[in-house]
Specification:
The longest helix is centred in the middle third of the chain and has 43 residues. It is built from 21 helices and no strands. Helix content is about 85%, strand content about 0%.
């Protein structure tokens, strides 16, 4: 029974990972044409607005999927369907109020939040309706996650990101045409056009979830009506539970993501005091915030998918008194996360230059590539800390991630302020970000060991580390050898991109083969990994298994 339960969680996490990967890649690819339209200055304006939008969204509604899924999962585990449905309805009321407040803050507070970047105000105001709609999308996603099905969430994420990409580029194009030749105005209105696409994407995702809800509505209502429990929670009790559950998650995710805003404020104020213009600050900050961070965030998003699947699963096991089963689920999800995160970090570090060159061929390619290589290690730290955040929330210890993130934020702020003031500029922001992720990872690991009896071990990570090092060497030889021997041929944009793609696919193949050889996973465990069945088939053909 435990094996089948673990397998279910891993399969749901893997399914959501595929969706996260697809939507993240779409989100990364559209940034290239968007960058061409709004320019280096627009990169910074877009990032300034988006980072404030993210924080407001986190406070207003971003915690709702995790909170709703955990609270509902606890009631579904004991077949209290009426109370679970009441949680769903109460959550809709919650986001109606919170979303309105958040949207108002974004629209009316934008000039005060972006005093050092006034040309980013329009972009933040455009995002206000998106904040309001996102809460309802989160409630529906949390509802289905509580039923341990990630497919509706996955499909809605892909649809959301696709429409986001299309409309971001289209609206940026139309809004920048009247200002061609004026870098400042193209940046201002290009950033605003790009944020319109975010709203269209959320509206699309909500439409997908409403369609899924209508399909399942009859069965859901039937289960609620057939609930034989005589005692029923009042709405006051339900709101109290939601508030107690969501508030720590809001604080945790808010503090966890506050680093971007803190870095932004520190960077803009210190650089402004040094006499750098607003456009110059935007151009520098965009180098890291707009170009580098989205690439690093792709594998981290996969860890977020694992965390999303893990919260209701662990909560269900704990509610049923199955501590050992909870530990097994945690262990398999950590292995799954490291299976992705470690090779991603190595691959990003080795191929940072061609990746940046392929996405953003203009501007300071070398500077962005160096930032990406140095920041690649944070993929591992962030991925582990994201999963352990989910574990602590599932264990009913949601306040601990808040405490850990707050401590890490203090470290981040101190390092960022000192390093930027000392002249490291955007490299100081990178250093602070890496140290933040490391601090959270260590503190979370200590708490998980204390409250779940689970701890990381070198043996867990060794197969992924060995396989990633071999993969990294293979990728380096495949890409950099031709590049160094024939720079005039492979230095061109098209040939460099083709060579990079070849190196990536060759690296994936090498990693899978070596991992299958050095890992002690059983065939069943291997099948539950992303593309595990195909990997197992390949290994058998090569007589490795």
């Amino acid at each position: 029974m435990a094996e089948s339960k673990r397998g279910a969680v891993a399969r749901q996490a893997a399914f959501l990972m595929v969706a996260q990967m697809t939507s993240s890649v779409i989100g990364l690819l559209y940034r290239s044409p968007l960058h061409v339209l709004m320019g280096d200055v627009g990169d910074g304006y877009y990032q300034f607005a988006f980072e404030w939008y993210t924080i407001i969204l986190l406070i207003a509604s971003y915690s709702i999927p995790s909170g709703v899924s955990k609270v509902m999962a606890e009631r579904l585990a004991v077949k209290r369907y009426r109370d679970a449905f009441k949680v769903f309805k109460a959550a809709l009321i919650y986001v109606l109020i919170a979303g309105f407040i958040g949207a108002s803050l974004a629209f009316f507070g934008a000039p005060f939040l972006l005093t050092k970047a006034p040309d980013a105000v329009t972009a933040l105001r455009v995002l206000a309706p998106t904040i309001f709609l996102s809460g309802f999308l989160g409630v529906f996603r949390g509802f289905f996650q509580a039923h341990n099905t990630m497919k509706p969430t996955a499909v809605s994420q892909i649809a959301e990101q696709f429409m986001n990409a299309v409309f971001s580029v289209l609206m940026a194009y139309f809004l920048t045409r009247p200002f061609v030749g004026n870098e400042g105005l193209m940046g201002k209105f290009g950033a605003a056009g790009g944020t319109i696409g975010t709203g269209v994407g959320v509206l699309t995702g909500l439409a997908v979830m409403l369609f899924t809800w209508n399909i399942n509505r009859g069965l859901i209502i039937k289960r609620v009506k057939n609930d034989t429990h005589t005692e029923e929670e009042s709405y006051r009790e339900v709101f109290s539970v939601i508030f107690r559950m969501c508030t720590p998650i809001i604080l945790a995710t808010c503090v966890y993501n506050m680093t971007s805003v803190v870095d932004q404020v520190i960077f803009t104020n210190i650089m402004s005091s040094k006499g750098v213009t607003a456009e110059g600050i935007s151009r520098l900050y965009g180098l890291f915030g707009y170009r580098v961070k989205p690439i690093i965030n792709i594998p981290i998003a996969l860890a977020s998918a694992t965390s999303t699947a893990l919260i209701p699963a662990v909560a269900t096991s704990i509610a049923a008194g199955e501590q050992k089963d909870a530990v097994m689920k945690i262990d398999e999800c950590v292995k799954l996360t490291m299976f992705i995160a470690i090779p991603s970090a190595v691959g990003i570090a080795v191929l940072s230059y061609p990746v940046i060159y392929a996405l953003y061929p203009g501007g300071n390619v070398e500077g962005a590539a160096i930032l990406l290589s140095l920041g690649a290690v944070s993929v591992i730290f962030y991925s582990l800390s994201t999963v352990t955040n989910g574990v602590l929330q599932g264990l009913g210890r949601p306040s601990l991630p808040v405490k850990h993130a707050a401590i890490a934020l203090a470290v981040n702020a101190a390092v960022a302020a000192v390093s930027v003031f000392m002249g490291l500029h955007v490299y100081g922001i990178l250093l602070a970000t890496v140290l933040y992720s490391l601090t959270v990872m260590v503190l979370n690991a200590i708490s998980v060991r204390k409250f779940a009896g689970y701890s990381h071990s070198l043996k867990q990570f060794l197969p992924a580390v060995k396989s990633s090092l071999v993969m990294g060497l293979a990728v380096a030889v495949i890409y950099w050898a031709p590049k160094l021997l024939l720079p005039t041929v492979f230095g061109r944009y098209i040939t460099s991109a083709i060579l990079m793609v070849i190196a990536v696919f060759a690296g994936i193949l090498v990693y899978f083969i070596v991992y299958g050889k050095v890992s002690d996973l059983t065939d069943d465990e291997l099948r539950r990994m992303p593309m595990g069945t195909r990997l197992l088939t390949l290994l058998r053909k090569l007589h490795i298994r």
